[in-house]
Amino acid sequence: MADPSGVVHPQELAASIAASRQGVRNFPRAQLRKLLPKLDEIGKNDDHGATLQKLMAYAASIEAAAHVAMAAGEWDATMIFFDAIDTVGHHFMQFRPPRMAHVSDREVRLYGDVMDRVYEWHDEALGRLLDRAGADTTVLLLSDHGFHSGANRPNLKGLPPERRMELESSWHRPYGVLVASGPGVVPGALCGPCSVLDLTPTSLALLGAAMGEDMDGRVLREILEPSVATTRVPSWDHIEGDAGQHPADLQQDPFEATAAIQQLVDLGYLAALPEDARSQIDLVSRESRFNLAVVHMSGQRYAQAIPLFAALVAEQPSIARYGMCLVQCQNGNGAHADAVASARELLSKDPRSQEYRLLLAHSLALAGDIPSSLRESALMEKAAMDKPEFAASLAALAMVQGRYDEAVKHAGRVAATDPAQHSGAPRTGACRTGARPFRRSRRTCARRIGDHPGDPRSTPSIGCGTCLVRRSAERTTKHGHRPAVRPRCAGEPSLRCAAVRGSERS
Question: Disulfide check for 159: which of 98, 117, 124, 163 has CB 3.0–4.6 Å away?
Fold first, then answer.
């Protein structure tokens, strides 16, 4: 049936989109058994089968709707968002080998290969969509983050629902995937440092449209053919056109609507919302503001992010990531004294937190109080020496403190613990650049470039090392293609510090 709510654009596709939806109850049993071979062994009180059925019915509906839209007529761009790998991962990645401590042998046997099969389903769906699009279509395949599948998987079992929702993001690895192919893309080209903010400007360039000067991202020129032009307009926000959005008179701010309902409750015209509903609304509101603040932080607009994080800390001081992001932004904005004060406040509430102590040590070092920073880091290093997950952060801290030999040791632990983790060798090279064995720095990062030529974080240190052994021409010609690196967050300045230090000494 047609959708009267206006959520489908153009409206004439509403009936076809509605008909293409895959209902949960009639999701093919054979397809579910392909994803979950031991489906018949699941007990009646175990809802994992029903959860997988619901999530994959939704994924099948997304694919079906995409085919309907693409078959309806000529199109310039089609954007499809599959979230099932993420959502299924939050339920089933815990069962994938190697077995986590809280997972039973039975659960591994029943659910251990579900994630691999879900990936295979998405591969097949991608193949069908590529066949539909045709060989003359430019394709961008991307993921905005990765997903932990090994030793860094979190154990959230037994947590209350609200606390679990707050910690679900700990499943995410920071690095995603970007693959580009088709007309306008240079075959075999490697992409420099990039983020999801670069996808809109790059897509606009491939479509022959201008990027907005108010966009935070850049056009990924290094992967595009010279024939793909780059033009600019001040802002697309002020250009009239049909973008498929609701008319202005129908657009609503859901949080303003919630506030209006609460006002009616306060006046006695409506019954109060149930406590669980109220807490869920508050959580969604906080997370929306948190995401906005993270966008500002990612774009290095620390002054805009700080009041948002500060308000979140005031509302929920027990949520660690709010306070940690606040300290990172204060440091990024140069307000190191404020960062020290915020870090001390966090540590006073949880003196056993190694993350808070690390933040305090880092903030003290950036504020110039190296002795106090060393005292805090000594306590931190003693407690975290057997925790490899802190090695990268300790290497960054030692760099800021000027303890380059210690930084090299910690960076080496990163590479030794997880050879596949990209940050090990670049950090080692950066630390050696600071410690002055510049030729070793060049060799370390050059080896990393050979193993992972698409990893941009080796190039700042190899450039510094090259410059400092008096090969400035080589730095310019061989590695001069590297775009400026935007630090991921203010709390990890090691590569930036190495580059600045190298330029000062040259």
Answer: 163
Picking from 328, 340, 403, 387, the residue whose alpha carbon sits closest to that of residue 368 is 340
Q: What is the tens place of the pLDDT at every residue in 274-327?
A: 666 667 777 778 888 888 898 888 878 899 999 999 999 998 888 888 999 999
CA distance 442 to 445: 5
How far apart, in whole angstroms, are the C-alpha atoms of residue 190 and residue 144? 18
Measured in degrees and rounded to the nearest 5, phi and psi for residue 131 equal -60, -40
DSSP of 57-102, one letter per residue? HHHHHHHHHHHHHHHSS--S-------HHHHHHHHHGGGSSSPPTT
C-alpha dist (Å) from residue 354 to 239, 377, 383, 411, 425: 50, 10, 8, 18, 24
Cβ proximity of 390 and 381 under 8 Å: no
Please, are residues 462 and 429 in contact by the beta-carbon 8 Å criterion? yes
- The number of C-alpha atoms within 13 Å of 50 and in the hemisphere containing its C-beta is 6
- Dump pLDDT digits (tens) for 11-46: 889 999 999 999 999 999 999 999 999 999 998 889
- Contact, 211 vs 201, CB < 8 A? yes
In whole angstroms, give the CA distance from residue 185 to residue 130.
16
Tell me the domain boundaries of the chain.
Answer: 272-505
Superfamily of domain 272-505: Tetratricopeptide repeat domain (1.25.40.10)
